[in-house]
Write a structure and sequence with these properties.
- The model has no long low-confidence stretch (mean pLDDT 95).
- Helix 3 (55-65) packs parallel to helix 5 and helix 5 (86-105) packs parallel to helix 6.
- The protein is built from eleven helices and twelve strands.
- The chain is of the alpha/beta class.
- Helix 2 (37-41) links the parallel strand 2 and strand 3.
């Protein structure tokens, strides 16, 4: 079962799982963008259009699907909308996660659950080194804080309900700033840039000097799959929190990423936004040594390969 399968990462994950021979069921709201990667894929899988805040309906979907493994990606995943409607963000990301785990608690045959959160779930100290999984959770904006809340919900269910023999193994996954083809969300760097190119305008960038760990969507998903594989194999030592971020060379400013992407797509243009902007962390790194050491996972594409592949995808879509 993939929740959030109609979204950016979820649609790629559903495609990848199906290509591996998995029988996939999806549960999510209808696609929130036009175009929609999910709709363009036309995957022949059961797809349930539900709101994960509806616990009874979600429980029915999980019970009927009887999944061996659940990848939970359904979320309100944007910072600015979390300022505009904080209650919707909190209820989706915290109570939606609780509803999913409660449904899995009683679902027959469920062996593993991977709850996808974010690198922004850490209490940001503007440290010049990477956050480790043992560092303190927190968040200034409702999106980041609600994802920290989802981590606490998962940890609570793991300790209180999923600790007995035969219970599902639950882990959380914290990826970096994920980019790649097919992302059409509003208020995210690459799709906003693509729309600006189509309109022949320069994109206004509000935090050009902010440093983020950039990685391709398929690299993050490969981490989720590696983690899910270990959980399905019954490895209880994998039932914990994991970072899936790129190497140090991919920790770059927004301005640097835009300038490097322009090498592969000369039509791109941007400028710094004027005026006051909502608070965002300036500096954010992830330490993914645990995933490299214990799961044998690492990103495959360099930052330039990621940017080139992303530019190629959108240019091919024009």
């Amino acid at each position: 079962l993939v929740t959030g399968h109609t979204g950016f990462k979820g649609s790629w994950l559903a495609l990848w799982l199906q290509s591996l021979g998995a029988y996939v069921t999806g549960a999510a709201l209808p696609p929130g963008t036009v175009p929609s990667h999910w709709e363009s894929l036309q995957l022949a899988i059961p797809s349930h259009e539900i709101d994960i805040r509806d616990g009874a309906t979600l429980q029915s979907v999980v019970r009927d699907a009887q999944p061996e493994i659940v990848f939970h990606l359904a979320a309100q995943s944007l910072v600015r909308p979390s300022y505009q409607d904080p209650l919707q963000t909190w209820s989706t990301n915290v109570m939606g996660t609780a509803n999913l785990l409660e449904a899995c608690r009683t679902a027959p045959g469920t062996k593993a659950v991977v709850v996808v959160t974010t690198d922004k779930c850490y209490e940001n100290q503007e440290w010049p080194w990477g956050y480790r999984e043992s560092d303190r959770l927190g968040g200034h904006d409702p999106y980041s804080a609600s994802k920290a809340g989802a981590e606490l919900v998962a940890a609570s269910y793991r300790s209180a309900f999923f600790h007995l023999p035969g219970a599902p193994l639950i882990a959380t996954a914290r990826a970096g700033n994920v980019i790649g083809g097919s992302d059409w969300a509003t208020d995210r760097l690459v799709p906003d840039l693509v729309r600006a190119v189509s309109a022949r305008k320069a994109l206004e960038i509000r935090s050009a000097d902010a440093i983020r760990p950039w990685q391709h969507v398929l690299d993050s998903l490969s981490g989720y799959l590696a983690l899910g594989e270990r959980l399905l194999a019954g490895d209880s030592t994998a039932a914990k929190a994991w970072n899936f971020g790129p190497g140090p060379e991919a920790n770059q400013t927004v301005a640097s990423v835009l300038d490097r992407m322009a090498l592969f797509w000369p039509a791109l243009a941007w400028q710094r936004a004027l005026g006051e902007q909502p608070h965002e962390a300036r500096l954010l790194y992830l330490d993914s040594a645990k995933a490299r050491t214990e799961l044998g996972w690492r990103t495959v594409w360099s930052l330039d390969e990621t940017l080139a592949a992303t530019a190629e995808w959108y240019q091919g879509h024009e």
